[in-house]
Amino acid sequence: MKRLNIIFFILFGLSINNFVFTITPTNFYSPYDINWRLPDCKDKKLQLSFNIEVGDSTKSRDLNEHKRDLLKIYNSTESSLAMLMGAEKDSDIYDLANLLIPAYNPSTDDGIRGHFDLGGRYSQENINIQTRYKLPIETIPGNFDLYFHVPFTHAKLSNVSWTDQTKEVLSADLDVHKHLTDDIFNNVKNLGDGLDLTGFEHFVLSDLVAQLWWYMDYKQAKEHLKNVRLNFRLGLTIPTGHQADENKILDMPIGNDGSWGIPFAAGIDLTFIREFRAGLEFEMLFSLDDTKIRRLKTNSNQTDFLLLYKGEATRSPGMIWKFNLYMQKRFANYFTAKLAYNFFRHDSDDLTAKSNNFDYTIINTAQRYQEWSYQNVIFQINCDLFKQDSNYKVKPQISLFAKLPIAGKRVIDLYTFGGQVGLNF
Fold first, then answer.
1. How far apart are CA 35 and CA 38, in angstroms?
2. Which of 107, 211, 214, 416 has the most CB atoms lying inside 10 A of its own CB?
3. pLDDT digits (tens, 9 = 90+) for 30-39
């Protein structure tokens, strides 16, 4: 037991120092979210469940937590003139910037010249195949469950629109139209080494997850409180999911964007009289530092979806927290009603470019690497299609839920719904 504790704390300590979290900025459940946990089936060792969650939206929340059009998640508009700033001398971008510099001069800039208003629709469907096996370990106090998650995701960004805000009044307006905004898609593609401003669609395997869950019950001889359960989870996420395509500026990763991850959680469940239960859980996820080619800013005024230059950069830790609070009541031996609240926060990431061509301060002004968060309220109904004391070989369970986003920052927070079908053997 002492050796097991030493190994655990060494792994946990290493993860804190060397890991970073990267994930699509939505409020969808992770494959191993605590709210996917079905009620215990005490006499069965193996559980196989199929989980699904769906949602779509044309809205997101910006840095001030206001609801905006979907692609205003980072900036209210995208500036094609700021896109040209900080270019290398004698490059095509540099020449175009010099040609249009009067249009971007503070004395003549009207705040909308060269700007685009963006819109779009994001939809996502997650399917998660989950297995749970109760390990027959008797030499260590408590109970051990081994989980495997095989998640699939269909994500789509459609109806993407780029609406030019540039007027046609001054000669500077006409120059910007002629040389830049009237053919923004081809201009950006040529200047930005193949940069694509359209949407995307993926139906892919997400990151595989293995997780060990320890829990132990402490019976209580109190008038109202009958049991206290402590539980801990430690796992590993395997980077099998889709990585963000840096040549499609609107693309998003499915999973941890190519990084290995270690989820860790600790929680407590309280069981009261009349089959009422409440609990809370604190979860963290650490992912390995990741170095790859990224789109990087060359000027602090640039907006996140119009970045022409690429460079190799390392993304460094931004601490994340996830907190879940719930209460549930069992009715008529079959049904369980559950109300839950969860809070998620991811602190700002830190970028370090491998080349001196990029300034550390400037590249870290990108909004997509800043803090983001969300808060949800979840309503859930579980149904056990058996009596607890029955001796059926297979005991099925079903569950339905609805998730309501109530707050968030720099996040696509969707109204989602879904359910589970579980089979206990």
1. 8
2. 416
3. 999 999 999 8
